[in-house]
Design goal:
The chain is α/β, with parallel strands linked by helices and 277 residues long. The chain is 34% helix and 23% strand. The chain contains nine helices and ten strands. A six-stranded mixed beta sheet has the order 6-7-8-3-9-10, with helices on both faces. A four-stranded antiparallel beta sheet has the order 2-1-4-5, with helices on one face. Helix 3 packs across helix 4, helix 4 crosses helix 5 and helix 5 packs parallel to helix 6. GO terms for molecular function: ATP binding. It comes from Oerskovia rustica.
Length: 277
């Protein structure tokens, strides 16, 4: 289950308030690049359950998009559909102008451009931390082993665990393992990073160490789509918040606007619960 923040609020339930974003918030939308991820008319069913309903969404290069909503709203399915871990029934998805391939080498190449960080870290338990990070570049990108190792060590330093390179995943805390997963994704030089509730499996004291890495990536201009219940991260790092419910995008707005003045009753109800309990 996701750890939900317990930010107090004196505002009425129907319209929770939040302070203005900090000075280090990302740049304005007009400073972002061209469209990088585009979804048009995307639908997905699991049997009779319609989990994605006519999704239209564009994410620009350098944008940090945070997707929030109640459990079962389709957030994770949306995230997984973007690199075809989940197939879609109708509609189109394109990455950097290229339609998402059905299968084969083309799909593998596109997935190399789309980094993914999951709830559970999905590290290879029998390989060292260094080997986990170098495996993709060597096997998929055909990077020379020495070059991959050098870059992997730099990435591990970047996420604050350079001294753990020779350890096995089981020797690391959950927060450290998730930072390895981020380094592993970055090693592929992705065009966009997808985060599917990356802190939900972590103990509360480990959450900030992962969020700090993600905030740093946002400041560096990494295009990110983040499914999360961490409202503090959304306020601090997002250019735009998308609120989903019942498989639909109900509302989207800059974080200060969304948290201060949500337009839909569904978003008002959701925020009144998540920000006051």
């Amino acid at each position: 289950m996701d750890a939900q923040p317990t930010t107090p609020s004196d505002a009425p339930d129907a319209s929770p308030t939040t302070p203005s974003p900090p000075p280090d918030a990302p740049s304005r939308d007009d400073e972002l690049g061209p469209p990088l991820v585009e979804l048009h008319g995307v639908n997905k069913h699991f049997g009779d359950l319609h989990v994605l309903r006519d999704i239209d969404l564009t994410v620009r290069r350098g944008e940090v998009l945070v997707v929030i909503g109640p459990s079962g709203s389709g957030k994770s399915t949306l995230c997984r559909a973007i690199n075809r871990l989940e197939t879609i029934d109708t509609g189109t998805i394109a990455i950097d102008g290229q339609p998402l391939p059905e299968e084969g080498k083309e799909l593998a190449r596109l997935r190399a451009d789309v980094g993914m960080v999951f709830q559970s870290f999905n590290l290879f338990a029998h390989k060292t931390i260094l080997d986990n990070v170098t495996l993709g570049p060597v096997k998929v990108r055909r990077t020379r082993s020495a070059e991959a190792k050098k870059e992997a060590l730099a990435l591990l330093d970047r996420v604050g665990i350079g001294n753990q390179a020779d350890k096995m995943p089981a020797q690391l805390s959950g927060g450290q393992q998730q930072r390895v997963a981020i380094a592993r994704a970055l090693a592929m030089h992705p065009k966009v990073m997808l985060f599917d509730e990356p802190t939900s499996a972590l103990d509360p004291e480990m959450i900030n160490e992962v969020l700090d890495v993600m905030v740093a990536l946002a400041k560096e201009g990494m295009t990110m789509i983040v499914v999360t219940h961490e409202m503090g991260f959304a306020r601090k790092a997002a250019h735009r918040v998308v609120f989903m419910a019942d498989g639909q995008i109900v509302e989207e707005a800059p974080p200060e606007e969304f948290f201060t003045n949500p337009k839909s009753h569904r978003a008002q109800d959701f925020l009144s619960k998540i920000l006051t309990h």
